[in-house]
Amino acid sequence: MPWKNQGGGPWGSGPKGPWGSGPQPVGPRPPDLEDLLRRGQDRLQQIMPGGYFSGLGITLIILLIVVFWLLSGFFRVQSEELGVVLRFGKHVRTVQPGLNYHLPYPIETVLLPKALRVNTISIGMTLIEDPARRGRSIRDVPEESLMLTGDENIVDVDFTVLWRIKPDGVGDFLFNIQNPEGTVKAVAESAMREVIGRSQIQPILTGARNVTEQGVQELIQRTLDSYGAGIQITQVQMQKVDPPAQVIDAFRDVQAARANQEQLQNEAQTYANQVVPQARGRAAKILQDAEGYKEQAVAEAKGQSARFLKIYDEYRKAPDVTRERIYLETMERVLGGADKLVYDGGPSGQGVVPYLPLPELAPKRAPMTGPQSSGANR
């Protein structure tokens, strides 16, 4: 018999032990579970006339069980999830985020993959907890990042892959691959090694990153589609592309020399772009002047030949008159600009006094200055 059921016991009345009264509870005592069950059974007996095992009681219990079973089919899909409803293990439909319903277990079940979330996988580097900095630090993973290029150089490549589940490929994602993250990481590393192995080191280190990223993304997507993985690669980002640490100084010197070479080439190209148009402009001007002179000379020659033909036609009609006219016009053209006066000594020229302008014909002397000039004037 327990101590609390003893009337007085050897130590007196009440719940006392051999060392006196036990600890007294502070505040209201919690309800007794047995008492609650007993009260629930009494109320259920009052509701079900005839007891538990009567026909009406069994029917009500079965109805309650069926109702609770049907209500168990309601489920909620979160914002980053998609609901994959399985009927006896077979994929029958996909539901969007929100409150949904499926036939209760075991007829239908639901899986809730994070199909709308973009996942990130880092290759060639890993994040580790750094207590000294109270955060995370990046640690290089050489076995993943060191790759061999097409020209037999070693390059250290760290990159990340962004991926998500295809909205129409949730079933493939759940049933065709067992370890999605491991599969994406292995395929991404293999694709990067293949693309790097077909490329030269110089374009990879300088300006071919976008081409490399695009090629790796397409290769990863083709491989995953061949697996039927139901995964979509959204982006490939190359974080670091450097030569190995042992030879990075030599590579930097080479890069500096090539940068200087490109600068000099650009300056030479700029000078050529400035000089060549000027030379072409001058050449075009010379050609245009020559073409103009040619047209002018041809036009003048044609004009003179036409004039000669006209004169020749007139000459044939009246040779003496034309000959005299030509003679007079020629003499007028020759003597028209001469500073000479010509007259004949015939009767018509008797009143003309000959005059020879000797001062004008003598050479002019410069005026003299000083005492000699004044003496000479005296």
Note the quaternary state here: single chain
**Main sheet, how many strands, which sense, barrel?**
4 strands, antiparallel
Low-pLDDT stretches are: 1-28, 370-378
CATH class category name of the domain at 119-244: Alpha Beta
**Category from helices, strands and their pairing:** alpha+beta
* Total number of beta strands: 13
Shape estimate:
elongated
Can you say what the CATH homologous superfamily of the domain at 119-244 is?
Band 7 domain
Mean pLDDT: 76
Number of helices: 11
CATH names the topology of the domain at 119-244 as: Tetrahydropterin Synthase, Chain A
- The ordered H/E elements are EEHHEEEEEEEEHEEHHHHEHHHH
Q: Mind telling me the C-alpha Rg?
A: 58 Å
Structure notes:
The protein is an alpha+beta fold. Among the domains are: 51-111, no CATH class; 119-244, Band 7 domain (Tetrahydropterin Synthase, Chain A); 251-327. 48% of the residues lie in helices and 19% in strands. The protein is built from 11 helices and 13 strands. The strands form 5 sheets. Strands 8, 11, 12 and 13 form a 4-stranded antiparallel beta sheet that branches. α5 (180-197) packs across α7 and α8 (248-317) crosses α9 (319-335). The chain is elongated. The model is unreliable at 1-28 and 370-378 (pLDDT under 50). The chain crosses the membrane at residues 52-71. Keywords: Coiled coil, Hydrolase, Membrane, Protease, Transmembrane, Transmembrane helix. It comes from Bradyrhizobium forestalis. Belongs to the band 7/mec-2 family. HflK subfamily. It is a single-pass membrane protein.
